[in-house]
Amino acid sequence: MQHVISVLVENKPRVLARIASLFARRGYNIESLAVGPTQDPTISRITLVVEGDEDILEQITKQLHKLIDTIKVGDFTNTSFVDRELALIKVNAPSALRGEIVQTAEIFRARVVDVAEKSLMIEVTGTPDKIDALEQLLKKYGIIEMVRTGRIALARGYQSL
Amino acid sequence: MKGAKMLIELLKREGVEVIFGYPGGAVIDIYDVLFDTPEIKHVLVRHEQGAAHAADGYARTTGKVGVCIATSGPGATNLTTGLATAYMDSVPVVAITGQVPTKLIGKDAFQEADVTGITMPITKHNFLVTHIEELPIIVREAFHIASTGRPGPVLIDLPKDVQQQEAEFTFPEKVEIPGYRPTYQGHINQINLAAQAIEKAQKPLLYIGGGVIAAGASGALRELAEKTEIPVTHTLMGKGAFPEHHRLSLGMLGMHGTYWANKAIMNCDLLIAVGARFDDRVTGNLKTFARNTETIIHIDIDPAEIGKNVKTHIPIVGDARLVLEELLKRVESKKHPEWIQEIEGWKKEYQPPRKESAKLLPHTVVEKVYQATKGKAIVVTDVGQHQMWAAQIYLLDEPRCWASSGGLGTMGYGLPAAVGAQIGNPDKLVVLFSGDGSIMMKIQELVTACNYCLPIKIFVLNNSYLGMVRQWQGCFYKGRYSCTQLKNPDLAQLARAFGAEGISVKNEAELEEAINKALSIEDRPVLVDCHIEEEENVYPFVPPGKSLDEMILWEPGKEG
Ligand SMILES: Cc1ncc(C[n+]2csc(CCOP(=O)(O)OP(=O)(O)O)c2C)c(N)n1
């Protein structure tokens, strides 16, 4: 089962290396990992998507917690949360097909953020499913390159981690 | 004040009395300050791995934090085996390494290595000091982290320019690390559940590990065991945490544990694990481990240990001493005559066979040393068969009298750890049991032992083999002894070349004489090279992956 885990860590050098090294040496698989600062500049939030059964997840959270730089660890699995991913997709866009591509993007509430003679760059946010779907549709035009941020997530409601 | 001076000042304030180390360009400023610091004794080892093991042996036998120093690059990488050893066995050590000047970090400078990167998975935590202003808080945090919660090694990487920078000396009274708050008090509801389970149990068993010693929980443990009449079995790391001569002691469990301890584990209805981590050398086949046990209670300061290998029914996160004291208040006095009788039966069913041999037997060596020292020595071991014989035969009644590499199984640990143990316990008798393979791995530390006039008694169980590996080759590889036969130097003569006393022993009469002589020498180490029966095996033996009740009790075909 896929789990979305949120980790608050001290915003210090090597913290990310510690987390990555922990996953590497204990043989846990990371599907995606996104890091950035929080409203408090001394704290960063790491969102991890990992695959594993209950036992593995329990170990992952405990081992993450054991790191001295880790302040809090939360598993969103049984809570209601909002998760998003951002992608930038650069696609072949000959003038004849341009209208069609822009239309497709609009349906996904995606935006065109760069226009060139033979290409368009599209920015899309949403759940990973939605991004997968758009990617699928854009494939037939030929995707030149693309990048995804990995998932970020916050629990719904007033409570915080 | 200069960074190097500040460091030493901070170490003094942390109560550091001795440092094990080896100088080099990147720590020369620190050594310059040590030159004028008579309050701190510096022990010059002959290899940085020795410094880490010595700090570890010092820490295990004194309960204080062990400190070691090495220079950047090769000095620091030489420390790593020692740090990994301390990490696996949860030993509080603070390692200080020099680093190239901050401006050169990342430039592949002379003697540069990414030491914080390299040691990340083998330390509890590590620091790279980039500004002198951070030094005081980092040193404070390092000692705090190393010695609290689940203890472990912490490394401080200190660039040369930071050692030379100037700043005002400060001493942060308080250490607060937002992400580090070990849980000491066990959850009362859980402790109540544990008390109820003890009340209900017919066949309870305590399984204790090194955590009991680390927490200073031996007293509380003994009270609990006696009050509720629960037999106790210990791991290699838990040796001495509960008196091995106690009527309730079953000795060590696991791969080379006693027959009755392993029987008890497989037949108990309640298993109370305290400061032990269900290592595979202890559990054997996990699928069948404790298969008749209804309830497992696991008391540990590290939440990540709970449920890691074995499913527990009553997990209690907390300090072993505090939890056991709470538990004691909640249990009634009890007796388990039938259970005790069942265990006594197993003890009668199997007694390790006494072998007759023309050659010196390893058991005889350990036994005679045990008798001559009246069981009162601090016992240090290396890794291999000799380690298991020492664990099985040299029974200990006190905690912190045993230093042996359990988790990592580090050959070469023994001699430097014995140096650390003797430095930390100048008035106690320190005995090292080593093998001919192990002793050669760190033989250079015999110089250190001689230089500081340490009267360590070294007994090498010399079988001209890497015995433990040969045993496995014999049992599982059709006796194909690939690369395990050793051609050794004359160890007694070698010891004498180092300035130690060296004695060669081939039979029991010579052995007794040698032990007496060794015990009478007080101003230098003594190495007694005991030429034992070469192909003796360690029994009982649970083959890897087998259940604890599938022990091989003695040599196949030689029963009775
Ligand atoms: C550094 C290191 N290298 C290799 C091993 C693998 N190993 C485990 S026991 C052993 C043999 C030890 O031989 P010796 O010290 O002579 O002791 P004996 O078993 O003969 O008592 C070896 C090679 C180890 N534990 N540590």
From TrEMBL, chain A:
It catalyses: 2 pyruvate + H(+) = (2S)-2-acetolactate + CO2. InterPro entries: Acetalactate_synth_ssu, Acetolactate_synth/TF_NikR_C, Acetolactate_synth_ssu_C, ACT-like_dom_sf, ACT_dom, AHAS_ACT, AHAS_small-like_ACT. Its EC number is 2.2.1.6. CDD domains: ACT_AHAS. Keywords: Amino-acid biosynthesis, Branched-chain amino acid biosynthesis, Transferase. Pathway: Amino-acid biosynthesis; L-valine biosynthesis; L-valine from pyruvate: step 1/4; Amino-acid biosynthesis; L-isoleucine biosynthesis; L-isoleucine from 2-oxobutanoate: step 1/4. It comes from the Bacteria. Pfam families: ACT_AHAS_ss (PF22629), ALS_ss_C (PF10369). Belongs to the acetolactate synthase small subunit family. Catalyzes the conversion of 2 pyruvate molecules into acetolactate in the first common step of the biosynthetic pathway of the branched-amino acids such as leucine, isoleucine, and valine. Dimer of large and small chains. PANTHER family: ACETOLACTATE SYNTHASE SMALL SUBUNIT, ACETOLACTATE SYNTHASE SMALL SUBUNIT 1, CHLOROPLASTIC. This is Acetolactate synthase small subunit. It comes from Thermatribacter velox.
Automatic annotation (TrEMBL), chain B:
Keywords: Amino-acid biosynthesis, Branched-chain amino acid biosynthesis, Magnesium, Metal-binding, Thiamine pyrophosphate, Transferase. The gene is ilvB. It comes from the Bacteria. The keyword Metal-binding applies. CDD domains: TPP_AHAS, TPP_PYR_POX_like. Residues 192-327 form the Thiamine pyrophosphate enzyme central domain. The keyword Cell membrane does not apply. It comes from Thermatribacter velox. This is Acetolactate synthase. The lineage of its organism: Bacteria, Pseudomonadati, Atribacterota, Atribacteria, Atribacterales.
